[in-house]
Design brief:
Blueprint: H1 6-16, H2 20-29, H3 39-49, H4 60-64, H5 79-87, H6 101-115, H7 119-141, H8 147-150, E1 154-155, E2 160-161, H9 164-173, H10 182-204, H11 213-217, H12 221-238
Antiparallel strand pairs: 1-2
Helix pairs in contact: 6-7, 7-9, 7-10, 7-12, 9-10, 10-12
């Protein structure tokens, strides 16, 4: 079983000015969201949250388990470019309170696509966000301590997270286990299903191009995000 490398912990302590015990605890918490990553890979994810990196201390297995994201290095920006960026106004089409850099990146991309009227892209990126939030919620409610739990959101045979359709079916089949949150789960399911159908059409057919913002606005994506955030927040406070 892979364990967290003490050299990485010491390096993070130097970079962040935090106690080693605090760093270990913070990294262990990330196991809920990044179950498929090695402990050292989760340490890299933790470092990225603070715009730091320990990638050079990872081995091949650690790097292979990392999600596809890298630390964005600061670049020198000319005065003219600064003025251009200052004028840029991104429409906040969707929001999802989070300190997770991967979620933040996806939310930012959805808002930029909406701002620049790339509405088909908006459908597809929002579909991806909702799909992954469902997987995270199932993982939070049903930790992978048992094979039965893990199979609700993870395709063991193919070694990947289950498809959107399967995640929705898992949520619906186990909604009674959410007890006080059961009604909230039912509302999420009834809201997500029509959005999934629309987004699937956009993703899988040449003939579906979203030309007007009305097509995406009527799906009320932010309402879906709000429901998912409420459920995830309630589960986080009890686990």
């Amino acid at each position: 079983m892979r364990t967290l490398d003490e050299k990485i912990v010491k390096r993070l302590s130097q970079l962040l000015g935090k106690e080693e015990s605090t760093i270990k605890k913070d990294i262990s918490i990330l196991a809920n969201q990044y179950a498929n990553c090695t402990p050292n890979a989760r340490a890299q994810i933790y470092a990225l949250k603070y715009r730091k990196t320990v990638r050079r201390l990872l081995d091949k297995e650690d790097k292979a388990s990392l999600p596809n994201i890298e630390l964005v290095k600061p670049i020198q920006v000319t005065q003219e470019k600064r003025r251009t960026e200052t004028r840029e106004r991104i429409i906040r089409f969707v929001k999802y309170p989070t300190s997770n850099p991967f979620r933040e990146a996806h939310i930012a991309e959805a808002n930029r696509a909406y701002t620049y009227k790339c509405y088909t892209c908006v459908f597809i990126i929002c579909r991806k966000i909702i799909e992954n939030l469902l997987a995270d919620i199932l993982r939070l409610k049903f930790p992978e301590k048992t094979k039965e739990n893990k199979e609700l959101y993870y395709d063991i045979h193919h070694g990947r997270t289950k498809d959107f359709k399967d995640l929705l079916e898992s949520l619906e089949s186990r909604k009674a286990d959410f007890e006080m949150e059961k009604k909230l789960v039912e509302k999420i399911i009834s809201s997500v299903k029509p959005f999934k159908k629309e987004a699937d059409d956009k993703a899988h057919s040449w003939y579906h191009i979203v030309k007007t913002k009305a097509e995406i606005d009527r799906m009320e994506v932010q309402s879906i995000f709000d429901l998912l955030y409420e459920l995830e927040s309630r589960l986080s406070s009890t686990h």
